[in-house]
User: Fold this.
Amino acid sequence: MPPPPQNSPALLRARAQKNLDERTARGRRRELRVAAPMRINLADNDYLGLANDEEIKNAVRAALASGPVSASSSPLVRGYQAVHAQLEARLCAWHGFPSGLVWNSGYAANHSVIGMLAAPGDLIFADRLIHNSLIAGILKSGAKFTRFEHNDLEELEKLLRDQPKAGSARWVITESVYSMDGDSPDFARLVEMKRRHGFIWMLDEAHALGWYGDQGQGRAAEAGVAGEVDILVGTFGKALGGMGAYSVFQEPLLREALINQAGEFIYSTYLSPLLAAAALAGVGRVRDLAAQAGARRTRSVQFREDLKTRGWQTAPGDSPIVPVVIGEDKAVLALHAHLNEQGIAVGAIRPPTVPEGTARLRISLKATTTAAELGELLEAMGKWRAAQPTQS
Assistant:
């Protein structure tokens, strides 16, 4: 007689349960919750407060009155509309790049750009703390992948010197503001290295847009090195208050290659025209608000000093992302829950998103954040720490 059939659904259920039980035991189980109203919101990435901006909403209302909600097809069929072309042109002018492409998400942009343009035989050197989307794209490409310690350009120099490979492209991938540490690489040093070693530099500006640059166009512009960046990726879903992403290129041929090769672009219904209209308006609003960037960055520096004065571990800088390293997963969850009870929203970030032993609060400053709100946060954090049992 044939053996009885396996109960595959039961095996799948048991496998999923085992994984969840292990995560729960380590304090790393993720839960999806509806965002509750909070008095003070320091958790999301709406750095300039544009997600509720009336000018952007009016642009969306106008687009809704005159056009469809959905692109209704992939861009190569009929989804690429006039508003998308206008958005591309605005982005290229903003960054000073000759060519660009709009994507449905930042993950799709990063995954596709490196995943399709890099090739087996290429050498990719990437900062250890780059975003998961970039890592996934690198693995998709089949290129040889080496990670250097975070912002350690001495190690990168050694890797570039010790791993020459004639006939293959060499890439360096960094972010301009790292999403969990809020710090930046040494741009002048990277440019100097690029000129000597001739690598392709791909830069993710997602968390720098709106906070840096004379028009809010990011850290590369602020440092005067945008012309040295080969591929720059940005997002509409943070400081610009919308959704979607883009990449701009010094070499226009790369845009054409992605249009022909990138599955995320070819086979997905394109970004809604309403969201493209929101992004167009968002670029304008970011440029309007760029003159206020100095005050925002001064507040970030001062808040970090206030944290250190009170004995909290943070990182230097002036970006909108302020990490407070707690260490233990369960401790950061307890502090996070305490702050929520006080009506204060912050991020609670645990491994594997961050390295082991560095679970942290991730505090996102806003253009609208006041000194009084930060003082209230510090007081609430202090009360939680005072209530913890002392270690013998």
